[in-house]
Amino acid sequence: MNAYQFHPEALEEADDAASFYQMLQPGLGKRFLEALEDAITKIRRNPLLYRKVDGEIRKCRLIRFPYGVIYRLKGDCIDIIAVMHLRRQPDYWKLRL
Q1: For residue 94, what pLDDT is reported?
Q2: Which domains does the chain have, with CATH numbers?
Q3: For position 97, what pLDDT does the model report?
Q4: What 3 state SS string does the chain have?
Q5: CB of 69 within 8 A of CB of 33?
Q6: How far is residue 43's CA from residue 89's CA, in Å, rounded to a whole number?
Q7: Quick check: pTM over 0.85?
Q8: Which of the residues 15, 23, 25, 50 has an alpha carbon 20 to 30 A from that of 2?
Q9: Distance (Å, rounded) from C-alpha 36 to C-alpha 51?
Q10: What is the mean pLDDT of each run of 10 residues along the chain (97 residues)?
């Protein structure tokens, strides 16, 4: 499996989303993080499986949550650029490239 790293703002997005869901319902934040971990595991197994959204940037959707992992390959490492809410500002993450 490929190694991966989070952009600092992507890690903050994941933490903020988990906190939000935890406030909505106890345990939901944990389920969000599990869905995120599952998506990252799938990306690490086969990073070229998911569709390109811009150049070499790809997106993997989370199951049961309106979020996607925006990432690219940098050599043998997966660079997670954003943990993006799919219904808000679709291209904001491009400033991180």
Answers
A1: 85
A2: 3-88 (3.30.2310.20)
A3: 84
A4: CCEEEECHHHHHHHHHHHHHHHHHCCCHHHHHHHHHHHHHHHHHHCCCCCCEEECCEEEEECCCCCEEEEEEEECCEEEEEEEEECCCCCCHHHHHC
A5: no
A6: 23
A7: yes
A8: 15
A9: 18
A10: 93 97 97 98 96 96 97 95 91 85
Q: Please state, in angstroms and rounded to a whole number, the distance separating the CA atoms of residues 65 and 46.
A: 21
Two structure tokens written together for 1: 């499996």
Q: Which residues pair with 6 in a beta bridge?
A: 80
The answer to whether 18 touches 92, Cβ cutoff 8 Å, is: no
CA–CA dist 47, 64 (Å, integer): 21
Task: Give Cα separations from 43 to 14, 26, 54, 79, 89 (angstroms).
Answer: 16, 28, 17, 11, 23
Integer Cα distance of 18 and 35 in angstroms: 11
**Residue 50, pLDDT score:** 97
